[in-house]
Amino acid sequence: MRGPDTQQSAMFSYLSPEQRVPADHPLRQIRMMVDKALNALSPAFDKMYVAFGRPSIAPEKLLRALLLQVLYTVRSERMLMEQLEYNLLFRWFVGLNMDEAVWVPTVFSKNRDRLMEGEIAEKFFHQVLDQASAAGLVSDEHFSVDGTLIEAWASQKSFQRKDQTEEPPKDDPGNPTVNFHGEKRRNDTHESKTDPEARLARKGGGQESKLAYCGNALIENRNGLVVDTELVQASGTAERDAAVLMVDRMEVTERVTVAGDKGYDTRDFVAELRSMNATPHVAQNEKRPGGSAIDKRTTRHAGYKVSQRKRKRIEEVFGWLKTVGALRKTRHRGVFKVGWVFTFAASAYNLVRMRNLLFPPVQSA
């Protein structure tokens, strides 16, 4: 019998969002880990808010909503609020009731900025990493490091001479014509009027230069989890400088290995790592003037070959951050804000990776 095409909606529903979400949905395990991390951050949240006045958006709900934005590649806060209006899965994950009002996008953004000022992203990152360490997922001996360019939220037209006094032609106030062809543009003579902290850079020869930041990650080689991040202004030595900072923050007491690509094969970097009780397992750059800084004292060991194979897993991190995490081109300006988002997105990557490792899907017979 053909069922009727009834259009009238029911007035009442006796099912909660909890009942609507399947028991085997991947977000269930992720929310369990997120809630554990947020409970540990409760004292930090208390310091950020006064005990009187009008209640603001709960920081726990803010962070869960921001996680959804990363996990589901939602490109703006306005679209995120739209999704929360009708998406039952999103409402359940954030903790909104069925009839609870969704926040105004501008109010949500202002409350998000408060979390940025409190450096919550870094604290949340370490809480998630502590759970991974407690589960035995993190290696404390073998690591890999690399960097990638995060395109800035600024156009090439905004990259103008610092001493420029002439105004561009007003043929189109919103998008004026600027002819910079044939002009030599460098970071020491030019800067972006939109994002002054962005730097003109390119990853390799034959590629175009773009206004960008340098996002760096340190992963452990056992399961490819991110153990530290550092976002700096792009420069010729940015990746090596960031790597030294991240290794130094590890406060190494027993010798560890740090793998990297050919860009890290410099005598200064290798010597700096060895002084911090870290063995540099970087790829040899035979074309480097004076030869490679890595000799057979390092390459003769079987562990060196393993590190060279494992270090490529860091590209999985950058690939995920740029495609799923929407960090191919950042939506924020300035080293601080872009770095906050970069660290928070790395936390989301770790949560997804941990979920896959701790709760593998059941194979059907």
Keywords:
alpha/beta, 14 helices, 42% helix, 13% strand
Q: What does this molecule look like?
A:
The protein has 365 residues and is of the alpha/beta class. Helices cover 42% and strands 13% of the residues. The protein has 14 helices and 8 strands. The strands form 2 sheets. Strands 1, 4, 5, 6, 7 and 8 form a 6-stranded mixed beta sheet that branches. Strands 2-3 form a two-stranded antiparallel ribbon. Helix 5 crosses helix 7. The mean pLDDT is 88.
Unreliable residue stretches: none
Strand percentage lies at 5-15%
H/E element order: HHHHHHHHEEEEEEHEHEHHHH
Mean pLDDT: 88
Which radius of gyration do the C-alpha atoms yield?
24 Å
Structural class: alpha/beta
Number of helices: 14
How is the biggest beta sheet arranged?
Answer: 6 strands, mixed
From the N-terminal CA to the C-terminal CA, the straight-line distance is 35 Å
What is the fold's blueprint, element by element?
Elements: H1 17-20, H2 26-40, H3 42-48, H4 59-71, H5 77-86, H6 88-94, H7 105-117, H8 120-134, E1 142-151, E2 159-161, E3 190-192, E4 199-201, E5 210-220, E6 226-233, H9 238-249, E7 256-260, H10 267-275, E8 278-282, H11 296-299, H12 302-310, H13 314-323, H14 335-358
Parallel strand pairs: 1-7, 7-8
Antiparallel strand pairs: 1-5, 2-3, 4-5, 5-6
Briefly say what this structure is.
With 365 residues, the chain is of the alpha/beta class. The chain has helices at residues 17-20, 26-40, 42-48, 59-71, 77-86, 88-94, 105-117, 120-134, 238-249, 267-275, 296-299, 302-310, 314-323, 335-358; strands at residues 142-151, 159-161, 190-192, 199-201, 210-220, 226-233, 256-260, 278-282. The strands form two sheets. Strands 1, 4, 5, 6, 7 and 8 form a six-stranded mixed sheet that branches.
